[in-house]
Amino acid sequence: MEDSVVVERHEGVVIWRLNRPEIRNPISDPDIVDAIVKVSEEAQNDRAVRVVILTGNGSAFSSGGNVKKIRSEMTESDKTPADLVDWYRQGIQRIPLALYKLDVPLIAAVNGPAIGAGLDLACMCDIRIAAESAIFAESFVKLGIIPGDGGSWFLPKAVGLSKTFEMALTGDPLSASEALDCGLISRIVPDDQLMDEALGLARRIAVNPPLSVRMAKQLIREGQRTDLETHLQMAAGMQAISHRTQDHREAMAAISEKRTGSFKGE
User: Fold this and answer.
1) pLDDT number for residue 1
2) Strand (E) or helix (H) holding 70
């Protein structure tokens, strides 16, 4: 079998391509779960990686769950509720936990339909840009189930509670323009320009001091769940570290000397 996730390197930018195009890149099978967790851990531990782009090979970003396997292995199986809890905890729920630990900025380049867990996967990313042909749906209710992969935690942070309830309780799809209107994505680009735009955005991030970028992401992420006093204490600590980096000194020198800085993550 081909790699479930194909990894490409473009200097400090890494591209992850979901690589099951013949079945529209579902993310519920054990091999894809293992692959996403593996590449996440590798990127987190590799200081040469400055930005990651996640996209899908073929016509879809991700169809979410593998419906045929879910039907045969879960709906029509004799697994107990306890067995199914273990299936989620040891399977697809490992993906949001792995991606949440990733300090490297993660861009979703949504090249086509992002359905169910596929939409939730996009919401696990920090920035989402979409091709004109992209479609988004929190469609679990259409299957008589609920977002079991963390979507009910991530989606409200992307679009707010009212839009989340609308999407999750109707299961209705959104076009790329509707996704832009509600803040689910930050821009729409022509299909044939999606990866060029994603790479351009990634490179504008990657030129900055990498430790500061990682710490800024950590601080923004933690700010979603901490009180102000705790958040300010974290910011003070991270800022103190930033002031003692060589990259900070280089940035200040580059501004003073009116030149482009060169940053090494030190």
Assistant:
1) 42
2) helix 67-70
Beta-sheet pairing, 5-10 with 13-18: antiparallel
Encoding tokens for residue 190? 């022509």
Strands 114-115 and 106-110 come out as unpaired
**Domain 5-206 maps to which CATH number in 3.90.226.10, 3.40.50.2000, 3.30.465.10, 3.40.50.1370?**
3.90.226.10
From the centroid of its chain, how far is CA 76? 32
Q: What is the pLDDT of residues 158-212, one digit of tens each?
A: 999 999 999 999 999 999 999 999 999 999 999 999 999 999 999 999 999 999 9
**Distance (Å, rounded) from C-alpha 88 to C-alpha 94?**
8
Q: What is the pTM of this model?
A: 0.95
Average pLDDT, the chain: 95
Is the pLDDT at 37 greater than 70, yes or no?
Answer: yes
Distance CA 50, CA 212 (A): 11
Composition of the chain by helix, strand, coil, percent to 5 = 50, 15, 35
